[in-house]
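#random but structural
TW: two for the price of one
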Amino acid sequence: MKALLAARVFDGADLLHDRAVLFDGARIAGIVAQEAVPAGTGRIELAEHHVLAPGFVDLQVNGGGGVLFNDAPDADTLRRIAASHAGAGTTALLPTLISGTRSHLRAALDAVRTALAAGVPGIAGLHLEGPFIALARRGIHPADAVTAMTDDDLDLLCAPFPAPLLVTIAPETIPAGRIHRLVASGATVFAGHTDATYDTVIAGLEAGISGFTHLYNAMSGLVARAPGAVGAALDRAGSFAGIIVDGHHAHYAALRIAFAAKGPDALLLVSDAMATAASDCTVFTLNGERIRLQDGRLVNDAGTLAGAHLTMAEAVRNAVRHAGLPLAAVLRMATGTPARAIGLADRGRIAPGCFADFVALDNDLRVAAVWQNGQRLR
């Protein structure tokens, strides 16, 4: 048994003071007052100014460590991506496939199954971002990959899967019955890359859509007489919404507006990380297009945003330092809320039985230490 002692412990919901987190191997045994640590327990004392939180949970990770999931959807790629993000505090993530061919979809599903069976640390499920999206809102997704969902596609996505499966779709392209069947099979469905009207999105929510992929980006906007997908997301406070907090995908005022509308139990941080995240990589290829890092933004030659050069730790720091959001709320948006959005009961919280995944942040909200499955990584 070991005990992590910290002046501030965020447990996934609240900020606690002067606590010790007990863990035995890969699982948490409990949280106690520091003076209640059992005799003989190995003690690890964090610096007074550090805050201990659950490891970050990221629902949208396209790549990292110099590699991209789309390029090589296999278990080795997943291991490298997960390891690079774990060093930056993200101990559970959904590798994300950007709209690809149907063979890409099958390869991604198989890769995650293989990684899970092999116990690759950090792989918590799979996010399929497309290809069942709106051509008009495809963003960097290749036009020739965007397609309508067939019966065979639906059967593939509804097949048993050993971990959370998040599927981003444009609700105007898929009948309500198919959305309902997807959700009934166990998948989580988010709306994204959509040009749908407000009413169409609301109908999708009623059919089982539970959230939105990268709020504001690649979706119909909010105007007075046409609230669009953004309006639906802000209006339905209980729906989840991921948001990319890099200062490029959304203005910090837009973040504050979303936070005011939805709060930290529904708004969640995502990185939308590409190959450059947690690496020295500055140029990569996505579906034959050259993507380069320019002034903190990832763009193609036409200047279109192509994912983000971001980790969750950086998103947390940006939300607090630049948007002025409360630290405890932001940590919830990076841990407990994304875990709940996809039904990960044993991640994103510091509670008995949960994985012993922790990140310690210093006074500047930079990563000072990381534990994953009870093992210290840095």
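TW: number two ↓
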Amino acid sequence: MRRQVIARRGGNISPMKSARDLVPTGPYQEQLRQFDLREIDAEDTHSLFHRKYMARLTRVIEVIKQELAPGSTVLEIGCSQANASLLLAEAGYRTIGLDIRADALQYALSKYQHGEFHCVTGSAEALPFPAETFDAVILGELLEHCAEPGAILRECTRPLRSGGIVVVTTPNGDYIANRKPLYDLEAAGSTQLTKYQFGPAGEDHLFAFTLTSLCQVLAAAGFEVVQRGYLGSVVYSDRLGRMKGMFSPQRLELLSGLVNRTPMLSRLLSHTLIGVGRKK
């Protein structure tokens, strides 16, 4: 596939635009806008979609800032709305959002305001970048869509500089409400899985990882696992109704963080896994 490269540098110093201010140019862009309106730009800051998404996004950005100085290069694979890339660009990082769909990248660019942000069309299976290009790679909610997660992670090692990191988030297969089969290394790459991979909607997950299997697939791909844990929790559930409304968003974050850090609770009550691997 011929790649399309679009760059944005400079611009004004306003934060990226809200989805409420955008006019999509097609049905897929409208779908992405609806995701944004439920997630990063939600009016109801107590909603499950918003709290789960922000828990992931905030933690990914925190990891990048902890590990890398501004000016470092960051690749977000399967970026879709590219919110992590846009926010990191505003914080002084040099970011590239890669997606297989050009209309997704055009949507991301419509939100751009400032910083160094580039877009590239391409596939996670064959990254269109030379070796030793990036300091970090972000795989946010992507591996559960891939027939061969290990192959995707191995491909990530090539454009990563030595000592660079990969940051992975993915749904928690041990969560009490999970209905997806758990990741099976032996079944990975089967014809049936390959047929359905890389779908654009959230319901097309092929399987779910446990924290153990996520760390195993990272290690097998050549990464040293330097951080791992849980994000989000049942505390965010809309089923709590009025009880959840009694707490401020900040209090919800504190309660959810407590669940995430409690071994007897986190495995079953946390929505999301995070794993950070360092290229050896």
